[in-house]
Specification:
TIM Barrel; two-stranded antiparallel ribbon; 8 helices
Length: 281
């Protein structure tokens, strides 16, 4: 199942209360709360209040969007991140794979990121929290092959990756990138850009329908989290949500029909094998 949600840092200037109101009015299901502005690392009182307001509004805390950089930040900085996520009842924390790109990172740099990721994944597992790397330039998790190497090196079951379409990458390459991540994919960050111009999501429907169709094949629950809107205007959120929800409804219908067809085919073959299928006299 794919659930529609919002990344709170889409609207950095808005309050927690305002963001919750927008999410409810737009008919979203959850919010990824950012750890820089809305729910800072270590602010437990604020985390509990944001979580309370979120759930009272009928929304879920989809994840905690931290800015902890494995292998680059002081190790003691992760404790407040984990405490904050736990206070919110978040079962997923987004983290960053260092601060150097996979092409520029040397062996010691890679080693620091991997060692720290192993450490913090262990700490998170003790509290039944999962981690996922941001898929982003300037980190070790910036390309499909680099992502696979990183996750293989860490080899922790509670550590996965987010995915978002790299800027100006062609559709076929984006699909290949997403396909490579599916086995360890946590959530998507959803937006449509041309260069660094933020456009209406509807303009990217040919791409996003394909991405969502591919994502649905995992059989797991994922969040499709809207991040950034045209002109940073909250009014533009509603059209983006409407497009995303429409695509998800259409995909759900297709998947249900496919599931019915598969079950019918399996049942028919079973009847043929065991002789239980009989033609009427």
């Amino acid at each position: 199942m794919i659930r529609p949600g919002l990344v709170s840092v889409t609207f950095r200037k808005l309050t927690v209360e305002h963001i919750i109101r927008l999410a409810v009015e737009a008919k979203l299901e959850g919010i990824e709360w950012g750890g820089d502005i809305h729910v800072p690392h270590g602010d437990i009182a604020r985390a509990k209040e944001a979580a309370r307001l979120t759930r009272e509004a009928g929304l879920a805390v989809a994840s905690y969007g931290s800015y902890y950089r494995a292998g680059a930040d002081p190790p003691e900085n992760f404790g407040p991140v984990l405490d904050t996520a736990e206070a919110m009842g978040a079962t997923m924390i987004r983290i960053w794979a260092g601060n150097v790109s996979s092409e520029q990172a040397d062996a010691p740099c890679r080693g620091r990121v991997v060692a720290d990721a192993i450490r913090i994944a262990g700490l998170a597992a003790e509290r039944k929290v999962a981690l996922a790397f941001e898929f982003h330039d300037g980190t070790l998790n910036d390309r499909p092959d680099a992502s696979r190497q990183l996750l293989d090196a860490v080899a922790k079951p509670n550590l996965g990756t987010y995915w978002q379409p790299p800027v100006d990458m062609g559709l076929d390459d984006c699909l290949a990138s997403l396909r490579a991540a599916l086995g360890r994919l946590a959530n998507l960050h959803v937006y449509h850009w041309q260069g660094y111009n933020r456009l209406a999501l509807e303009q990217g429907q040919d791409r996003w329908r394909r991405y969502l169709e591919l994502l649905s094949q995992t059989g797991r629950e994922h969040w499709a989290l809207l991040e950034f809107v045209a002109n940073d205007d909250p009014d533009n959120l509603f059209a983006d949500v409407a497009a995303l929800r429409r695509w998800l409804r259409e995909l759900s219908k297709v998947n249900r029909r496919s599931g019915i067809a598969r079950r019918f085919l399996y049942t028919g073959r079973k009847h043929e094998r065991d002789g239980s299928h009989r033609q009427p006299p």
